[in-house]
# Entry
Amino acid sequence: MEKELILSKILEIGEEMLVSGGETSRVEDSISRLCVIYHMKDINVYSIITNIIVTVTDEDGKSIQSDPVSVGKLKKI
# Structure
């Protein structure tokens, strides 16, 4: 559960970067680096202007996939 919460917070950071005008490549790189800091492996990040999807493996080999983050929803709020 802890890794899912950490991944959720990392995605919030990436989402804020996109909303603030950050480049998608910079967002992907930042998310990947944050995942490495928290000992996640097999990190796959896919980011476009409206969505971010992340899949990682934790130290125990458990695969964790994020719920897709829709940046468009945040802009509407």
